[in-house]
What does this fold into?
Amino acid sequence: MILTVNYHYFRQKEDSKYPGIHGVSKERFSKQIANLADNFKFLNLDHIEESLKSPEIFCLITFDDGLKEQHEIAFPILKKYGAPGIFNINGYYIKSKKVSSVHKIHWIRSVTPEEVFLDSLIKKMDQMEIRYKEKLKKFTPKEGQNIYDSIEIKNTKYLLNHVMNDGDKKILLDELYNEISDDERAHSESLYMNDEMIKELSEHNFLGSHGWRHNPKTNLSSSELIKDFNLNQEYIKKITGKYTDFISYPYGGITAVSTKVAKSATKAFHKFGFTIERAISCDKDPRLLMPRFDANDIPHGKSPLLHFDKNKVISLEGNELLSEWFKI
It folds into this structure.
């Protein structure tokens, strides 16, 4: 069995001025890795199949979005503890020196009061005559996604990331983003890993794919899916000389991942994939649809849902910890 824990931002000051970016400090991460080391064996990435079939729990750490701070802060700590990590990158934003829509949203919110952000968004949508049927009073948060946000922000993120078409979203976000940022290229270069970092991670077999672009893969056709996954694989191979076996899906919830998406990932030579279902992986789980916990869910996280006790994982809420989303 495998306990996978996922991370995004790493910041010494964990929370931005306004609640848009929530990071993990070096000290918190060190405590979490030390605690995991005290209770579990770390997974050998060459023996994933054997670990999935074992009743013993092995631990794996993953990182999404290819953020430079992950390499600078988390990677040295993993090496210190001999812990494996899979750093999943979106090649498009690194190559093009652009910032993804999801990170534009995070950044705008991090420097803008929530009510100002929401008001500006609504005004821009009205000006552009953008109308959607999804209303806040009828909105139900999707399983596993944005559980630490307010209902208003959950609704807004779902609208922007899962409902709005790419054309409208690009125009809308670029207008909001460009009002407070005048150098997207510099922002991208400071935010995402460079080729040297990617190559170093690959040499440790720590590199994974997050798809070419950061978008819900369920919104793509079969041909678009294959193209997206293959573009990122070719980008990775150009830098490292090889494809990666690993992929995590942007957003990762049940509205962003499906068995169709997983089948397309296999055609792009991926062997193991990760969602954001909060569960422990076992032999019954599809290899391209493995669950993961968030960093905040584990001990020393901001809102722990779990307790560890010498190779045991105990839910503080009494929940079943095996995967239910997808079955073989």
About this structure: The mean pLDDT is 92. The CA atoms of residues 138 and 155 lie 10 Å apart. The chain has twelve helices and ten strands.
